[in-house]
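ok so heres the complex, two chains, lmk if somethin looks off
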Amino acid sequence: MSDHPLFQRIERFRRRAGRVREDVVTQAHGGGGRAMRDLIDDLVIRNLGPDLQADEDQARIGLAELMASGDRLAFTTDSYVVSPLEFPGGDIGRLAVNGTVNDLAVGGAIPRFLSVGLVIEEGLPVATLRRILKSMGEAAREAGVSIVTGDTKVVQRGAADQLFVNTAGIGVIPRGVEVSSKRVRADDVILVNGMLGDHGAAILVARGELKLACDIPSDCAPLHTLTQALLAGVDVHAMRDVTRGGLAAVLNELALGSEVGMQVDEVALPVRPEVRGFCEVLGLDPVHLANEGKLVAAVPADQAARALEILRAHPLGTHAAVIARCRAEPPGVVTLGTGFGGERILDVLVGEQLPRIC
Amino acid sequence: MRYVDEFRDPVAARKLVAAIEGQAARLDRRVRIMEVCGGHTHTIFKFGLEEMLPDGIELVHGPGCPVCVLPVGRVDDAVAIALQPGVIFATFGDAVRVPGSQGSLARAKASGADVRTVYSPVDALQLARENPGHQVVFFALGFETTAPSTALAVLQAEREGLGNFTVFSNHVTIVPALEALLEAPEQRIDGFVGPGHVTMIIGLAPYAFIAERHRRPLVVSGFEPLDVLQSVSMVLAQLLDGRAEIENQYRRGVKDEGNRAAQDAIGRVFELRPSFEWRGLGSIERSGLRLTEAYARFDAERRFAVPHHSVADPAACRCGDVLKGVIQPWQCGVFGTACTPHSPIGACMVSSEGACAAYYGYGRLSTARRLEGSR
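and the predicted structre for the whole thing:
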C-alpha cells in the first residue's frame, strides 16, 4: 500500500520545505500547524540557517571546542521593539543581532551563538518579515555568529507593534580577560570609538513626525572585532556599548560602578555636524542620544595613545577619541567641561529626551 | 556650526567674564539678578555660567518656565479632559510628567487616556483632521512666545470648519507676573535679564514700569551663553551708572516694537481672564489668556466638564518660593531627596527649564563647591 504512487507523491510533498503564499502574516502562521511550518521553512530557516537546529526543541552545543577558546561563558539577552522596523542604516533584524553581539563583545567575549524569538503582530506584510529576516541572517554571517535556536509567535492585531524580536547570545571569554564596570581606576582615561548619536537621530528622523529632511544613517554595527583588537593591545579595565540613554547613561554607570569621578571634555566628543544641528534644532543633546555601534573603554592613561591607535586602525574606529579623564573626587559623579569654559554635571535622563517647549 | 559657534566662543566668554569681574569689584556689594525666562535658566546651567561668574553676582531664577507656573489644579483639569472618552489629548512633551493631585498625564496615558506628544499646535490640528471621530484637545501652554501659534491654529481650524478641535488654554502673560514679583515685600532683586522670545512678540514697551516705577534695570537677552553673559554685564553697567533702563541685547531677534502680526493674532483669538492662578505666585489679575466669545466653540473649557478645583501645592514643596526667587532650589527641604527629576514633587523639578531640575541635573556640584567656599 505504501508504495502506491499516490501515497508516495503525498509523502514526498509532506517532506518538501514549506512556502508562504499569503501576503500578510495571519494567526494561522502561529497556530502550530502546517501554516506555521511554512513560515518557519520559508522565512526563518531559509534566511537564518544553516546552523539553526530546527528539528530539535533545543540547540546542542559541544563543550570541548568552547573550552579550548576560553574559560568562561558570557550569556546575555535583549528584546528589540524599534519603530519604524526599517530605517536608514539598518532594521530591527540587524539591530537584534548586533545589539546582542555587542553586549557579549564589551564583556570581552567572542560571540558565538544566538537564539531568536519573534513576536509577530498579525497583518505584518510577509515581504517585510522576509526582508528583515534576510537582513538578520546577513548580519549574523557578518558578525560570525551562528543562530542555533528560535521561536515564533503570532499575536492578535494590537497586541504587539508589528514585530518584536528577542535575541539571546552566548560567547566565550578568553582566559585572562577581565573587563568589569567595577575596574575603572582614578587614573584611567575613557575612549569612544566614533561619532555619537547617529542611531537616535536616525530613528527620530525616520519616524517622520518631525518633518525634518536630513540624511543620518544609524551606526548599527557589530563591535566584537574592535573589542578583541583592543583587548589584545592594551589593559582594558572596563568596556560598555553605548546604547539607550547615550553616553551620559553609560558613563554614569561606570562612575557609580567603580566609585570614581569622570570629567568629560565636551570639545573632544565626536559628533557629526548633522547630528549637532539636529540636536540644536530640537533642544536635544548628543550625549543622551542612542547609539548601536559605539563603545566606551576605560584604559590606563599611559596606554591611551596605543588604545587610540588600535581603535583608529579599525574601520569602526576611524573617529575614535579620548573623551574623558577619571579622577578620585567626587566619586560616582560625571561632569562635563563645556567648550565654553564652564563645568556642569552630566547626569542620566529621566525618561526620553524631549524637545523644550519655548 | 554657523550661527551657533560664534555665540559660544570661549575666548569671547573669558573677556566678558573678566569685564563682569571688574564691574563686580567696582560695585563692591552683593547683586541679585533674576533671569525671568526658563530658557535662560537652561542656558546658564547647560554651559556652567553660574560657576564662571564672580561670587558677588547671584543669579536668581524667575517664573518664566510655563510648565513650572502651571498650578496643580490646572494639571488635574488637563487629566480630567484627557480621560474623557473619545478625546485625543495633544500636549508638549514637557507637560506629560508634571504631577497633579491625582497623577500626571503620563499616568493617565498608562490608564488608557489617549495622550499624544506634539511639537506644535499644527501637529494637533493634523490629528484633528486625521481623526474626525475623535475630539482633539490641544494643551496650550506658554507665554506670549507660544500663544501666537495657538491663535493661528484656532484661526486655521475656523477656516477649515474643523468641529473636533479645541484648545485648553493655559497661556499666561509675563508682565503681570513681574509686577506681582516686584510688589512682593520679600523680594530683593537688583535687576533683570529679560525674556528674549516673549519680547520678540510683545516689544519693549510693556516693561517700562520696571525702570520707571521700580527703578530696576532690565536687559532683554538672547539665549546663547555669550548673550546671557553680555546681558549680565549690561545690567551691572546700569547699576554702576545708577541707571534703570530697558535695554535690548538681543537686537538680532527682537525689534523694539515686537511683532505686530503675532500681537494681532493673539488679540483676535484671546482675551485676558479677570484673574489666573500661578503656582507659587497665587492669583494674578489679568495675567491669563482664554478664548474670546467669538471662538468659544474652540474652547475646551466650554466643551468639556472641567473640575476647576484649586489645589494647594504639596506641603513640603517650595516651588512657589523658588519661582519668586525667595529661595534657591537647594534651600528647599525635599530638594534632591524626596523630590528629584525621577520622582518629582513640584513642577520646577520636571521641566528642563525648571530651576530645580537645572540645579539637580547640571549644577549640584558647582553649587556644593560654592557653598563649601562660602562656609
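quick notes: Chain B is about 40% helix and 15% strand. thats all i got rn
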